[in-house]
Every structure is written in C-alpha cells, then in structure tokens.
Design a protein that fits this description.
Layout (H helix, E strand, L loop, with lengths): L13 E5 L3 H13 L3 E5 L2 H10 L4 E4 L8 H11 L7 E5 L3 H11 L3 E4 L4 H11 L5 E5 L3 H12 L5 E5 L2 H10 L4 E5 L7 H9 L9 E5 L4 H9 L4 E4 L4 H11 L14 E6 L6 H21 L2 H14 L6 H16 L2 H17 E6 L3
Parallel strand pairs: 1-2, 1-3, 3-4, 4-5, 6-7, 6-8, 8-9, 9-10, 11-12
Helix pairs in contact: 2-3, 7-8, 11-12, 11-14, 12-13, 13-14
Length: 364
C-alpha cells in the first residue's frame, strides 16, 4: 500500500461528524484537531443533513444508529441533494461490518470504520478518502446556469466544484476552505459579484486567487469595472464549455503543480438497447472500487482477484472495454501479489467511472 500524503495544515479541510455519543465526539475532535482538521458535530442524522446543505465539507463521518433519523437515511438524503462534487461519507459504527457494510454502500457511503476505533486507523481512513483536488467555487443566483457549470466542471478529473447563490455565501465559502478558482456572476441579489470580489480581496488571502467575472454585459467599460472590483479575468455569459475549459486550464494547477492537461471527460458510445442497464452496471463498479480499497487494507487478495476477473469478463459486453482492461489488470496484479499496482489501477478505475460520458446510439 502507498504511504498516505501528510495533511497540509495550510489547507483547511472541514469534516462533519454525525455522532450522538459524547465520548466518541470528544475523542474524534481531539484526534482531528491535532492534525489540523476543522470539525463540526451533528448529534443526529437530521442535523447532519441540514449542516451538509449549509456548509461545504471535505468528508463526513456518519454513525448508523442515531435518534430521529439514522445514518443510512441521512446519507441517502445528502446524496439526493448533491448537484456537483460527491463528498466522501464514511460509515462510523459499532454495528457488525459483515451485516451492515453492504447496506451502507448501497445508501451511498464510501467506506466503513468500525467502533471502537483507534486514532491512527481513523486518521489513515480519512486521509485515504480526502479529495485533494483543487476546488472551484461557482457563484451564480440562477439555478439553471449554476447547475450547468457545476455539471461541466464535475466531469473533469482535475478539480472539484462547490457553489454559492450570492456574494455573501461566496465570502463564507472562501473563509471556510481553500479555494483555487472562483467563477463569479456579477449581477446577483443580496450581494452582487462586484462587492463580493472587492470584499474577498480584503480578507488577507493570496492575491493570486483567480476571480473570473461571469457577466452578460459586453465591452471595455464592463471589463474595466470587473477588473477594478478585483477580478482577474472575464468570461461572457452564457458560459460555453470551451471557454470554461480554457479558464480552468489557464488558472488551475494540479496538486503536484502540473498543468491539468487531462481535464477532459471520456466519451463512450453504447447501443441504446441496453440503456436501462448502464446506470446499475456503473453503480456496481463504483461499489467494487470501494470494496477493493477495503480488501487491500484487509489483505484479501483472492477476493480482489475475483472482482477483477468479473470486471474483465463483463465490461466489454456493456461496451465499456476500458473496464474490462482495468479488471484484467487487477486480476493479473492480484495473482502477482502486486499491492501497489492494484491500488494504482483501482484509482484509475475510480477516475474513469467519475469521468466517463455515455453516449447512446440508435441502431439503424
């Protein structure tokens, strides 16, 4: 297994703990704050759902048995409300993993941490699941416009996206976490983009934080107005996909400081006769990714080999040849005992599932 990257304490990773037992709350808070994480706590599932909608979290630890709304229902509600990036949710429970792991994965959780827990294993599980890609903040009061941009960005593997509906929410987001790029609508109620941009520039953050104005107004006077407000550049609305991709490639850096030249989705054409089968097939492969991560930690190489063999035999039949090739690679590496190779290939599979774009074709 590869060594987890150390936490950069200059980046404010925010975690939500849904847990009703005070002693567990105290232990988790002490462990996470010592590592530089920021932690919010919800005593039940209902509060966890509300907090997840009010704030942007990098990861959620979700107890299963809680008063009122349990963790499974809370996870389903959080997943149903997501419009852009998918926040990792880890089951955090004293219930038997053998009985409850599959229901947790089916509800939308990504992994299972069994209680009682030790701090070292907890921190390792969190570090493994944190999404370290740079964050793009989309600020737009138009729900349709915002969702379109979120959808386009969320298909890219080089970054993740969060959103705000006005300038006040944008300022709160910038204060609460590390933002790599802001796409700022300039005409908004409550607080417009001009005021929000000026305010962000007074927060003492990096002057290099790109703020790209999004406006339907054209001409040099509008551009000068945006730049005077503190914006770094300008993009015309409605925002076209090619312009959006150019902005991201110009301003974002990969975590290893490489230009994200792979910011693109992968299109795959599939016969429309099996259209209704594809969502379930892809969801099952996403569960395989989570299972392989768990099985690596457990050292269960034979079960990993079996999953790889199954993918190798099924992907091509669904028109997803890359899943077959990655499954075959996982099977081969399992037979060779190549744990690092399995982990790398499993990460490639996860990225592929996040970025594949299915195009259904009609047979003549």
């Amino acid at each position: 297994m590869s060594i987890q990257k150390p936490i950069d304490k200059n980046i404010r990773y925010r975690i939500l703990l849904a847990e009703d037992t005070l002693s567990n709350q105290v232990r988790v808070r002490q462990a996470l704050q010592a590592e530089g994480y920021e932690l919010d706590i919800a005593d039940n599932g209902s509060d966890a759902v509300v907090l997840s909608q009010e704030k942007h979290y990098d990861l959620i630890l979700m107890d299963i048995q809680m008063p009122g709304m349990d963790g499974l229902e809370a996870t389903r509600k959080i997943r149903s409300a997501e419009t852009a990036s998918r926040v990792p949710i880890l089951a955090f429970s004293a219930l038997s993993p053998g009985q409850y792991r599959d229901p947790c994965l089916e509800a939308g959780m990504d992994d299972y941490i069994h209680k009682p827990f030790d701090e070292k294993s907890l921190l390792k599980a969190i570090s493994r699941r944190l999404d370290r890609r740079p964050v793009v903040l989309v600020v737009d009061d138009s729900g349709e416009s915002r969702q379109l941009i979120e959808n386009q960005i969320s298909r890219l593997k080089c970054c993740r996206v969060i959103s705000a509906v006005n300038g006040i929410q944008a300022i709160k987001a910038v204060k609460s976490q590390q933002i790599a790029l802001i796409l700022m609508d300039m005409e908004m109620p409550v607080m417009d983009g001009y005021t929000a941009s000026r305010t962000i520039r007074t927060l003492g953050l990096s002057s290099e934080l790109p703020i790209i104005a999004m406006t339907a107004h054209a001409g040099e006077p509008e551009i000068r107005k945006c730049l005077k407000a503190g914006c770094s550049g300008y993009i015309h609305k409605p925002v076209e996909k090619t312009s959006l991709l150019a902005i991201i490639n110009e301003h974002l850096k990969h975590p290893e400081s490489e230009v994200p030249s792979d910011c693109r989705q992968e299109d795959v054409q599939i016969n429309s006769d099996i259209q209704e089968l594809i969502p379930g097939y892809l969801a099952n492969r996403a569960r395989d990714v989570a299972s392989i991560t768990r099985l690596l930690a457990e050292g269960n190489i034979e079960e990993i080999r079996r999953l790889g063999h199954s993918m190798a035999g099924s992907g091509g039949g669904y028109g997803l040849q890359k899943i077959s090739s990655l499954g075959k690679a996982i099977e081969k590496m399992s037979l060779a005992g190549d744990l690092k190779g399995i982990e790398r290939t499993n990460n490639r599979l996860s990225e592929y599932l996040q970025n594949v774009n299915i195009v259904f074709r009609q047979e003549g």
